[in-house]
Amino acid sequence: MKTTYYGQSTVEIELSNGTRLLFDPFITYNPLAKDIDVKSLKPDYILVSHGHGDHVADLIEVQKNSDAKVICIAEIANWLNGKGVGNVHGMNIGGGFNFDFGRVKMVNAIHSSTMPDGAPGGNPAGFVLYVEGKQLYFAGDTALTYDMKLLEDENLDWAYLPIGDNYTMGADDAIKASAFINCKNIIGIHYDSFDVIKIDKDQVREKFIKAGLNLKLPAIGETLDL
């Protein structure tokens, strides 16, 4: 199993059978991802945490180019239906579903959610994936919340946590979140794309090391083994 980082919160997970899961596609409008060709992304599934433009800007284009099934909260599913996207699976917080690649559970996130055209985006969410014998947590955009303690018994192998501050958790709260969810392997997301979420990578790495955590901050386009 591998994961590739495309900037901001856009990550892809490739399973051993070749199935590709893409999260929160935002590439075209991210200057840091200028070397990524959005047309080259051909996921089988797209998972959407919430409706803000820096998470869905390329959603419809990628979906049309790949015919991927979109997994998202019900309100975003309805919005996509209205845009002519029919290959959608709507969910809601606390619910899970068994897909052909594994199980997905939608979990709470503390944030806001509005679609780029002003339509309501439902509640923001995170995802827990049970795939190929591993448990992965994609937190989406969220504050530190005590609800994360509900994941401490999930035996999470990896967690994607926002660390950019201002709009989401910063590094200090992400370290607390790592303890709440009982996961030591962290991939940082939602940082550096805008001035207000730029981080000092060396300082952040040092904080995670002192906390006994394995933090990965992959370069845009870099692939890691999970």
From TrEMBL:
Domain of life: Bacteria
Sorted UniProt keywords: Hydrolase
Keyword flag Hydrolase: yes
Pfam families: Lactamase_B_2 (PF12706)
Residue ranges constituting the Metallo-beta-lactamase domain according to the UniProt record: 7-190
InterPro entries according to UniProt: Metallo-B-lactamas, RibonucZ/Hydroxyglut_hydro, UPF0173, UPF0173_UPF0282_UlaG_hydrolase
Family matches, as CDD domains: metallo-hydrolase-like_MBL-fold (cd06262)
Signal keyword on record: no
MF-aspect GO terms: hydrolase activity
Family the UniProt entry places it in: Belongs to the UPF0173 family.
PANTHER family, sorted: UPF0173 METAL-DEPENDENT HYDROLASE MJ1163, UPF0173 METAL-DEPENDENT HYDROLASE MJ1163-RELATED
Name of the protein this chain belongs to: UPF0173 metal-dependent hydrolase GCM10022210_25970
Lineage: Bacteria, Pseudomonadati, Bacteroidota, Sphingobacteriia, Sphingobacteriales
